[in-house]
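Figure S4 source data
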Amino acid sequence: MEQESRQINFAFIGFGHVGRAFARLLIDRRKWLLKEYGIEWKVTGIATKSHGTAIDSQGLPVKKILSSWKRHSNIDNFHNGPACSSPTDFIRQCGADVLFEMSVLDLSGEPAATYIREALGAGLHVITTNKGPVATHFRQLTGLARLRGVRFLYEGTVMDGAPVFNMLRQTLPATRIRSLRGILNSTTNHILTQMEQGTPFEAALDYARDAGIAEADPSLDLDGWDSAAKLSILIQAMMGGRVKPKDIERSSITEETGRIVRAAIRRERRLRLVARAYRQGGRVIGKVELQELEVFDPLAAIRGLSNILIINTDTMRELAIVENNPSVDQTAFGLFSDLISLLR
């Protein structure tokens, strides 16, 4: 006997590479969502920084928007509703049940944190891939979500769609994370492993930019801020710490790092940008640092755009999650997996 379907409305803030990949995934899995969860969905709003804003309570023509998308596209022509002069107006008027927040990373967490607060306060569930607001406003936003009886989910902020937070939440009950370490930034790992093979620093960085992996401001990758933001989220969400990105000691990667990479190779070692967290007394300490690793270290084997996270627990000892050469499709799946958590 088929279950009765229900309607759920989505809105997007941000419609870049990840947002468009997520929209395609939703379209591709439309029948599956209906069969498994009885869900019919429509996108009632899309707000972007550079490509306009559109709201339609009857549902935007997402397929048409995707098929006609170009670098200088403007979606204002699809708007069918009252004037919308700001992102907060958009949140109030979009008629969504779930807001997917996918704006560009800013280490202050703003303005994304304001958007998320506005949405949670209005009773919308929020799913984000934006590291900034989660790292800098974690307790405030999770507390507001609990107060309003809605969900605030962020699987896509660390290791794209790999099950990091969902793994702990759903499959490791009563487990304490003692420490963790990993390679969390694809751009810098790609650069380091390319420089091992003699590729110039700039050429390796250009590849990461072209692949859509590097941040819009690549200094956030190269100066360790992206890894620090991800580590901060892991510490707060998985270890109960209060560590913000600014509290984390960081190393940078520059063209000069190539010399250190090649010297490590001659010693049969590998240079990696390692994010790690450990308990010290009643505190949790976080560091992002260049480390020379023995070749048999699992982190040394992680090459290119791949990531790894190793967690040390009091129940399962060590567990490792490896994500092999992710793309925006994996980040889009992080949004999708959070959506499924919401529907269960």
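Figure S5 source data
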Amino acid sequence: MSVRKTLIPKINSETGTLKQVVLGLAENFGGTPKIDDCFDPSSKYYVNNNLYPTQKNISKEVNDFHNVLTKYHVEVLRPQNIIGINQVFARDLGFVIEDIFLISNIIKDRQHELPAIADIISRIKQNKVFQIPSDVIIEGGDVIIFKNHILIGYSNSEEVNKFKVARTNSKAVSFIAESFPQKKVIGFELHKSDENKDENTLHLDCCFQPVSTDKAIIAKDAFKNKSDIDYLENLFGKQNLFYLSNSEKNMMNSNIFSISPKIVVSDLRFERLNNWLLEIGLTVEAIKYEEVAKMGGLFRCSTLPLIRN
């Protein structure tokens, strides 16, 4: 009889050397949804234009991503396969800060994804798992760790009630600040739209992400408040930021994934970004992820890191 190994989460950055990660599943995702069942504008756009990805195409892309992770000796865990449910975007189901796994309060449309990682969560010591209060709405794509900071994308209460794409509320910023008092927790308001994919920023990682040890990718147009952009420019230094054009923002160029401070996984289409990453000394594993992107996320969205050293 095999012994179930206890999982010990450890995340203190977005770019530390990745040791263990949950990668989303592309199999049996249920095919093209009805337009009324889409809960993000990107999916709506591609359904309306008969361009929604096929099972074959997204499976190949996720498998290619899996192969890159294992190439660098990352232990890859997978959710339980629930037939007919889109389980590609594991990031939003939970997230790790330091040695604590937090179970996200995701929107009602996605609640049925959570049981797929129940077995993984059960392998973590109970006192290291936080169940977030019901009035705190948060998804993992809105949570980014950088040194002593926890950066959170959020929407105000009016927008949370108005937009299905408003996935994190202001109470989440307060809750994380209270739960991790040793960290500096900063919230950033993002532009939201349920209908126009180019006017919507689903999560913070769709417009911003640290890379290497002191640099970051940013799309200024996605932030509602100039003061938030100023904060990030002061935190990183303008010379350490890669500024995305509006079209690059719409393609979610910021949603790449770091395997270590020196290795990133990116999309083949992101030529200008990939050239910059190479210029600052990173190894770029560029693969095709265009079909997955049609569902509203890319590499970071597909992953839920458990351990980084």
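The longest strand covers residues 18-23. The radius of gyration is 18 Å.
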